[in-house]
Amino acid sequence: MSDMYSSDEIMTVSAARALRDGLTCFVGIGLPSAAANLARATHAPGLVLIYESGTIGAKPGLLPLSIGDGILAETADAVVSVPEIFNYWLQPGRIDIGFLGAAQIDKFGNINTTVVGGDYGRPKVRLPGAGGAPEIAASCREVIVVVRQTRRSFVDRVDFVTSVGYGSGPGDRERLGLTGAGPRQIITDLGVLEPDPETLEFTLTGLYPGITVDTVRERTGWDLAVSASPQAIAPPTADELTALRDLHARSNTA
Amino acid sequence: MAEIVSLAEAVGRAIHDGDAVAMEGFTHLIPFAAGHEIIRQRRRGLTLIRMTPDVIYDQLIGAGCARKLIFSWGGNPGVGSLHRFRDAVENAWPAPLELEEHSHAGMANRYVAGASGLPFAVLRGYNGTGLAEVTPTIAPVTCPFTGEILTAVSALRPDVAVIHAQRADRAGNVQLWGITGVQKEAVLSSERAVVTVEQIVDVLDPRPGAVVLPAWTVTYVAQVPGGAHPSYALGYSARDNDYYAAWDAISRDRDAFTSWLAVLMKNAL
């Protein structure tokens, strides 16, 4: 945390940097949507944003509150039906990056957005559920997860597998017939985690300025592996911060 | 052939206690006014079907209309939880709520199967997820040509579909555009269909990307301007984001919700 920018801001900027210009990106609402729109507003003007409401190539000038806001349809290259977006566009692997959030995520990148605690029929906390995430996680060529890191959200095993990352380890995606490569990065408010090439266990590979490995370990619910020399991630530039704050300002007053 | 009637008549005639009702509209064109009329007419024991049971189903569930929910994402978009939905699942208030839970891709394909007159649809999905374990309408199926194991989801065949559209003509042909979601499939998979519209016009001039539902696929059309509020109708109204944000506090508290409900019951259209 710094007095120059908030932890959410560096997380969003870091996630935006992960999106290269010209990619196609299936965008979940919330933090992923903010990051994808920031990328479009800065280094990736040709990033193609696809929302599960059926809007392909949406170019909102502000952050939509929902995946079906009018601005998405009005600025899209094409608006298709919901069966079509999933069957023709997502399922065959046409989309480069799936950009997801999570309520719980485990060391193999499996995501839970369904229930926490208790049992499925009578949970302690009922979350919204799957939405488009299971098939985004299965079929996009790669997945990036954007989530705030806490001991409650970063758990050894998720209470419910809503969307599959690497299952219980190497070989599981192939065994399950999942066509995409799976989660490539988890971008948090502390740094970046990436799967170990051999174990596929998410490993700390990048840290924001002022964040220590100990802090990340304290906020991780499993015995976190750390790469030999975690990369020092550059703080947001003035341009990135201005663009992000402009997006938020336009959204709050729209 | 579609009959043009009042909203109260359409709901009264088309929707009965115990029916399976699919009210669709993917953020856009959500049939809120029809949902409120179902609450006012005190329907009970409904199986509510909807991909995104957002505020409209939170209201129906809190009002005690539902016995079962078939869905894929139950939240207040961009705001947070649906607290009436959560209270029903976590605490059985005001009544227990049976769940049949899918992903969006699964739900969309279930409507496609229903609209196609098929018993199930096939997709590549659910493998390795907990949903495949808890939901009986998800099952593996082997491709007879390649031997690949895929996922089958059973067809949805609601008793009634309820949607909101921009326009209808006097014969009851319906036209909707913008984000059209899964409404066409919902109507074609259902036994009956109720459509509320912003406007009834003499001639439906073509609109880019519009879905047209011929009058003979629709049972009742009711003119209800603003009938999607707080959702929106592209070309007619904007999404009332403040309503969605304000719903959080009402939904969070049983007393606040009960007061909201009492006002709704008093205010007939």
Verbal overview:
The complex is a heterodimer of chains A (254) and B (269). With 254 residues, chain A is of the alpha/beta class. Chain A has one domain (7-253): Glutaconate Coenzyme A-transferase, CATH 3.40.1080.10. Helix content of chain A is 28%, strand content 24%. Chain A contains eight helices and 15 strands. Chain A has helices spanning 7-17, 31-41, 70-75, 82-90, 133-139, 172-176, 213-218, 238-253, and strands at 24-27, 48-51, 55-56, 78-79, 97-100, 104-106, 111-112, 115-118, 123-126, 142-146, 154-155, 183-187, 191-195, 202-207, 225-232. In chain A, the strands form three sheets. In chain A, strands 4-3-2-1-5-10-12-13-14-15 form a ten-stranded mixed beta sheet, sandwiched between helices. In chain A, strands 7-6-11 form a three-stranded mixed beta sheet, with no helix packed on it. In chain A, strands 8-9 form a two-stranded antiparallel ribbon. In chain A, helix 1 (7-17) packs across helix 2 and helix 2 packs across helix 8 (238-253). The longest helix of chain A is centred in the last third of the chain and has 16 residues, at 238-253. The longest helix of chain B is centred in the middle third of the chain and has 13 residues, at 104-116. Chain B is an alpha/beta fold and 269 residues long. In chain B, helix 1 crosses helix 2 (32-40), helix 2 runs parallel beside helix 3 and helix 3 (55-62) packs across helix 4 (83-91). The model of chain B has no long low-confidence stretch (mean pLDDT 97). Chain B has helices at residues 7-14, 32-40, 55-62, 83-91, 104-116, 131-134, 183-189, 241-252, 254-266, and strands at 3-4, 20-23, 46-50, 66-71, 75-76, 80-81, 98-101, 120-123, 138-142, 149-154, 160-169, 174-176, 192-201, 211-213, 220-223. In chain B, strand 2, helix 2 (32-40) and strand 3 form a beta-alpha-beta unit. Chain B is built from nine helices and 15 strands. At the A-B interface, helix 3, helix 4, strand 9 and helix 5 of A face helix 4 and helix 5 of B.
